[in-house]
Write a structure and sequence with these properties.
Largest sheet: 3 strands, antiparallel
CATH superfamily of the largest domain: Hotdog Thioesterase
Number of strands: 3
Low-confidence stretches: none
Distance between the termini: 47 Å
Number of domains: 2
Structural class: alpha+beta
Number of helices: 7
Strand content: 5-15%
Strand order of the largest sheet: 1-2-3
Mean pLDDT: 88
CATH class of the largest domain: Alpha Beta
CATH topology of the largest domain: Thiol Ester Dehydrase, Chain A
Oligomer: single chain
Order of helices and strands: EHHHHEEHHH
Length: 215
């Protein structure tokens, strides 16, 4: 890739970096960062984390490596990083990027890179069908569309990229807890109201039957 070939808005080829436990252990040893929160899932979960985390400087190294693969021989002037979420060891995140500025005078290119899971985007048709099935199953009063949908980034996003789908939330916070302040699903402090589980099973089954009947 030569500077003259770069245009504003160009997208870099997406990559799926190797962040296996073996690779992370190798990195932490080389960087003298032998901390269990990076190499021990159980230890990390006891700290309230979703699992062992990829060290921040390893994430930065992966981003820099992607740039050099895209433009061999280039010089990285600066790498400004904002950590907005955890990257868990052993998962399959995606590095994506796009050119956001090209300075012809200074011959400098600015690239915006993202390391993580893709944003989960519900299919409109599937969402409407799912809400209708849920309302039939548990009643309209117990079915709600989020006023402010969350643009969650997680591995389900890879599924809906290939197959039309939608993510629904099953309310399973115990009645004595406030769902706005209760521990989240990936916390080791979370408590579920198990009475919600049969509802979840029935909803999955009803959605499957609805899809098979319609198709």
């Amino acid at each position: 890739m030569r500077f003259e070939e770069v245009e504003l808005g160009d997208e870099l080829p997406a990559e799926h970096p190797d962040i296996s436990m073996e690779r992370v252990v190798e990195f932490t040893k080389a960087a003298h960062m032998n901390f269990p929160r990076f190499t021990d899932h159980e230890f990390a979960r006891k700290e309230g984390l979703p699992g062992a985390l990829v060290p921040g400087i390893m994430s930065q190294a992966l981003l820099a490596t992607m740039i050099h693969r895209w433009a061999p021989g280039c010089r990285i002037v600066s790498l400004d990083t904002v950590f907005r979420g955890h990257v868990v060891v052993g998962t399959t995140p995606t590095i994506s990027g796009a050119v956001t500025d090209v300075d012809d005078d200074e011959r400098v290119v600015e690239v915006d890179l993202t390391l993580g899971y893709g944003v989960t985007i519900n299919n409109d048709g599937v969402t409407e069908d799912a809400l209708a099935v849920a309302a039939t199953l548990v009643g309209a009063a117990r079915t709600a569309r989020l006023a402010h949908p969350t643009m969650g980034a997680e591995d389900f996003s890879y599924v809906v990229e290939r197959v039309p789908g939608a993510m629904l939330f099953l309310g399973c916070t115990p009645h004595e807890q406030n769902h706005l302040t209760a521990a989240t699903n990936h916390s080791n402090r979370v408590v579920h109201d198990e009475a919600a589980l049969p509802v979840g099973v029935a909803l999955h089954a009803a959605l499957a039957l609805q899809h098979l009947t319609a198709n």
